[in-house]
Amino acid sequence: MTPEEISSLLHRRKIDLWIGNTIEVTGIILGLIILFSVDLIPYYVFKLLALLFSWFCFWYFSHCIAHYIVGKILNINFLYYYVGRSGLIKLELPIISHIFRFIPVLGIKIDRASLRKVSKQRIAIMYISGALASMLCPLVSLTYSLINLDYYTTLLIGILTLTNILFTLHFSSKVGDFSKAMNVLCKS
């Protein structure tokens, strides 16, 4: 199958809100369980893989649930979750865009009618919350590594976390949540 065929199979499959929220929360809990199990793993390679998987869980599963929680607090409603493709594909970066054509991502569909009832600032905050969650939640794995693991493992997780933050700050302002927030705030 081509990337486009895979994408069309996965793209915009609707998932009930409660199921999507359950997936997100379960992913974060899984990340915590794996993180706190790292010390029980005897071999360094498996310990590192578990730590990286935990980091990934905090990065991936925090995003949409942050939109949902912040949106609900700010009176923004959502219709459903969906399986789609990352906005990184739009950047047409040689390697990254190609890889992300194959990776399904979970998204959350905003109820556009609810946006008409709230301020632009609230909408922008809701958009920004997902990117902030994806940047900051992996700090849990870094903090754990700082406290419990060796220097080189911590350095690796630190570089990964810093790269993620810088990457998100740069590219989200072009095609992601920061871009959407700025577009909302700049509308007249």
Give a quick summary of the entry.
This protein is mainly α and 188 residues long. The protein has nine helices and three strands.
Can you put this structure into words, describing what you see?
The protein has one domain (3-186). The radius of gyration is 18 Å and the shape is globular. The protein is mostly helical and 188 residues long. The protein has helices at residues 3-10, 17-37, 44-73, 94-100, 112-115, 120-136, 139-148, 151-175, 177-186; strands spanning 13-15, 78-84, 105-110. It contains nine helices and three strands. Helix 2 (17-37) runs antiparallel to helix 3, helix 3 (44-73) packs antiparallel against helix 6 and helix 7 runs antiparallel to helix 8. The protein has a three-stranded antiparallel β-sheet.
Spatial arrangement of strands, main beta sheet: 1-2-3
Number of strands: 3
Give the tally of structural domains.
1
Assess the beta-strand content as a share of residues: 5-15%
Largest sheet: 3 strands, antiparallel
Please state the overall shape, judged from the principal axes of the Cα atoms: globular
**Terminus-to-terminus distance:** 44 Å
Outline the low-pLDDT stretches: none
- Radius of gyration from CA coordinates: 18 Å
